[in-house]
Design goal:
The chain is built from four helices and no strands. It is an all-alpha fold.
Length: 114
C-alpha cells in the first residue's frame, strides 16, 4: 500500500483536523529527538576535545621528561630515540603540538647513540 493511500485512509478516518494534529505531534516528536541527539553529539565532541587535550599534555610531559633524562645522561639508546620520535610525531602532528619540544628533540638528536 502506498503512503498516499495510507494518508488518505487515516485522513478519512480521523478527519482533517485530527490528521493535522497527528502530523504536528509527529513533527514535535522528531524535533525533540533531533534536539536531544544534537545535544548528545555536542557533549561527545566536548569529551573528545578534553581527552585530546589531556593526551597532548601527558605526551608533552613524557617527551620532555625523557628528553631531559637522555640529555642529562649524555647519550641515548637507538630504540629509545626512535620511540621518542614517534611520541613527538603523535604530539606534534596528530594532536596539534605547537613546536615547544622541537629544540629538545634537536638536542636529543645530537646525542651519541649507546
Amino acid at each position: 500500500m502506498s503512503d498516499t493511500v495510507l494518508v488518505a485512509i487515516v485522513g478519512g478516518l480521523l478527519g482533517g483536523s485530527a490528521v493535522a494534529a497527528l502530523i504536528n505531534q509527529i513533527g514535535d516528536y522528531l524535533k525533540t529527538r533531533l534536539k536531544h541527539k544534537h545535544k548528545a553529539e555536542e557533549t561527545e565532541d566536548e569529551n573528545i576535545t578534553a581527552f585530546r587535550t589531556a593526551l597532548k599534555w601527558v605526551l608533552y610531559d613524557r617527551i620532555r621528561y625523557l628528553g631531559q633524562a637522555y640529555i642529562h645522561d649524555g647519550k641515548v639508546d637507538f630504540d629509545d630515540r626512535r620511540i621518542l620520535h614517534e611520541m613527538h610525531q603523535c604530539y606534534h602532528n596528530g594532536l596539534g603540538g605547537n613546536g615547544d619540544l622541537d629544540s629538545l628533540m634537536n638536542e636529543v638528536n645530537k646525542l651519541p647513540l649507546k
